[in-house]
Amino acid sequence: MSFDDTAREPDQMFSLNRDLTGELEYPTKIARFSNIYHLSIHISKNFGAETTKIFYIGLRGEWTEAYRHEVTICNYEASANPADHKIDQIMPETHFIS
């Protein structure tokens, strides 16, 4: 994730509250965050301090063993022709939380 990615629309936003006891939980949209392999969190604001300190971020969920899926359908080209592979924009499958 780079700072350019912070302009993208996040998959979910949270309005954070002060949590001195560390007991607040923020529920996520289950449909958007199932089978996550990479998660980027952007914290854009704090409560008025000059610096932001994060002491703990806890994530809950179920652990699943990594599964490597082998290639099942593929085409081999001796010499690739870029005209055959027109793509307007490549969007990585990354989920962002703000």
List the helices and strands and how they pair.
Elements: E1 39-41, E2 95-97
Structure description:
The protein has 98 residues and is largely without helices or strands. The chain has strands at residues 39-41, 95-97. A two-stranded parallel sheet has the order 1-2. One of its GO terms (cellular component) is nucleus. This is PITH domain-containing protein.
What would you say about this model in short?
With about 100 residues, the protein is low in regular secondary structure.
Q: Percent helix among the residues?
A: under 10%
Sheet bearing the most strands, described?
A: 2 strands, parallel
Beta-strand share of residues: 5-15%
Tally of structural domains: 1
Q: Which structural class is indicated by helix and strand composition?
A: little secondary structure
Low-confidence stretches: none
**Rg over C-alpha atoms, rounded to the nearest angstrom:** 19 Å
Q: What's the pLDDT, averaged over the residues?
A: 76
Q: Walk across the major sheet and give the strand order.
A: 1-2
Number of helices: 0
Let me know the number of strands. 2
Keywords:
98 residues; little secondary structure; two-stranded parallel sheet; 2 strands; 0% helix; elongated; PITH domain-containing protein
